[in-house]
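TASK: fixed-backbone design
INPUT:
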């Protein structure tokens, strides 16, 4: 009887231990879930494309890390309704670019403001998160003007819905480059009461075939996001192509090997093998003469 009681006591103790370990592991897994911070920016390139730049980060040991491979749902919020317009996944850098076919596919509220919600449902490693942004639609019209032999870029910033000019806003004017744009004009070019700026373009700016691409940018505005207009202007200094890729140089591809490198080594190889064959033949002759 006593042995049965001892056995039951041991069994209950082991069972309690397993239950405690299971609950503690579940609690540890819950604790390990980290918070995710979403950032989103509206970007419009006039007459080209419209998209959202989305980034997901998390703070681990006081350092921000990129959260990759998570699915983010994108909603158009209209009043109390949320209309799903698509979904996207973050890349290895925790970034994603969600393109819009047309801003007209979105529905604004009564103040012509677009309200967008980005939502992450959470997973085993991260908690759910969401981010809301609001913006209005603006546009930039650009024009190349020549006055007294000086070239200028004229740009006008207006609200797309009302058509009213947007005054007192700073526009960046820069030349498009492969890595970093080249800024021209003043550091701050504020629009006047008509929403316009007038910026001179320096001479001697190089461009392929003499064509330069001018960017006029409203950068990360609280109400309108980032708006960019591109203007191609044939006023640059033509770039002289000094590439020797198609010439027969030491650094060219194999099919462009210099002629002397093809002839000289082959002559050396033929000469060496001819000498070897000559010596071998003479050795055979000497051996036969001794016989």
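OUTPUT:
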């Amino acid at each position: 009887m006593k042995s049965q009681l001892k056995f039951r006591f041991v069994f209950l103790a082991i069972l309690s231990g397993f239950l405690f370990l299971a609950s503690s592991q579940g609690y540890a897994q819950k604790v390990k879930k980290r918070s995710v911070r979403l950032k989103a920016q509206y970007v419009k390139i006039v007459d080209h494309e419209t998209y959202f730049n989305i980034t997901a980060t998390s703070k681990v040991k006081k350092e921000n890390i990129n959260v990759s491979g998570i699915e983010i749902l994108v909603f158009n919020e209209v009043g109390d309704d949320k209309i799903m317009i698509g979904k996207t996944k973050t890349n290895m850098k925790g970034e994603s670019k969600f393109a819009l076919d047309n801003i007209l596919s979105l529905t604004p509220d009564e103040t012509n403001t677009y309200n967008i919600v980005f939502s992450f449902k959470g997973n085993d490693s991260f908690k759910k998160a969401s981010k809301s942004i609001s913006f209005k639609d603006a546009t930039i019209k650009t024009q190349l003007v020549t006055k007294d032999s000086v070239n200028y870029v004229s740009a006008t910033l207006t609200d797309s819905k009302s058509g009213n000019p947007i005054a007192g806003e700073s526009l960046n004017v820069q030349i498009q480059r492969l890595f970093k744009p080249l800024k021209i004009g003043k550091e701050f070019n504020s629009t006047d009461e008509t929403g316009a700026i007038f910026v001179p373009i320096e001479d001697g700016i190089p461009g392929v075939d003499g064509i330069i691409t001018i960017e006029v940018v409203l950068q990360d505005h609280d109400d309108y996001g980032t708006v960019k207009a591109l203007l191609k202007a044939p006023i640059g200094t033509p770039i002289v192509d000094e590439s020797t890729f198609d010439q027969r140089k030491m650094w060219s591809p194999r099919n462009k090997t210099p002629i002397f490198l093809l002839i000289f080594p082959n002559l050396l190889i033929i000469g060496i093998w001819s000498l070897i064959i000559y010596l071998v033949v003479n050795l055979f002759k000497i051996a036969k003469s001794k016989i």
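COMMENT: The chain has two helices and 18 strands.
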